[in-house]
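Q: Here's a chain of 315 amino acids. Please give me its 3D structure as tokens.
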Amino acid sequence: MIKERLERLNISEFPTQHAESQYNLGKLLLDRFKRDNNKEDLIKAEISFRLAETINTIDANPYEFAKIQLMTGMVYFHLAEFQDPEAYLYKAINMIYQALNIFTDKKFPKFYAKSQITLGNIYRCLADIKNRSENISQAIDAYEKASKIYKKEKDSKEYTNIQLNLGASHIILSKVKDKEKNLDKAFDAFNEAIKLLSIDRDAFSYAKIQCDIGVIYMMLSQIRDEQKNLFKASLVFKVALKVFTIDDYPFEFATTQNNLGLVHLMLANLQNPNENHLKAIEAFKNALEIFNEKDYPSKHKKIMSILKSLKQQTN
């Protein structure tokens, strides 16, 4: 339908309508990419946005220009999945900053927040390639700026997603510097997110965050309050397993059982070794129901090695 409209619209006679149609076509192609993961849709989307930009320049229409920069930045972000990741991520960053020159927090708060979230996602990906500490810090800064726009009660979905991104980013940063400080911040962010979810309405997300919190407790146990944090980890993993059943979510079930086994293995060094060893063995065996040798050879091998060691200790 949009293509037919473009064929009817002469760019010299109807420049505004032509630019609008090119922009809408680019958005449709980007949405189709998110559904089908076809690189060609990204290439076509970039062309459409660039054609729209020839009409809606920064001088002629700064608002539309900024929208185009934001969308083009998203295209480059996804193109980085296929080729030259570092180059495309930097191109994406450049596009988003051009958009932010127009989309200020005062004049266009929602577009500002959307741009900051996109910027945060880009920096997180860039942190996997180079300068992890610097780039993940940039991601955190962008997410925090976005979080100031969305209100917890009014924009609960957006606010929750930002908190999840913040939590994940602080965990990454904790592996580079200020471990305890960043783990505490990650915990606070996940805790903020889970307040807006319920196990009945948002079962998967609720359980996923419980697992994330469980991992944080495990990491914190290496710094302080070892027994207390490990006990808390076991509790939240058990909550998650109410949702992550072997039939509904087999991979998540196995991953959580594996983490639960590791918790009991660590607890066995502090209290009730026989009881915790037995609980660890049970959890690891549950994980092996999914992590079999054929489908998950490395996970299977690792768990089997732990079970072998436990068997030798209990004999």
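Q: Can you summarize the key feature?
A: Residues 197-315 form a domain with the Serine Threonine Protein Phosphatase 5, Tetratricopeptide repeat fold (CATH 1.25.40.10).
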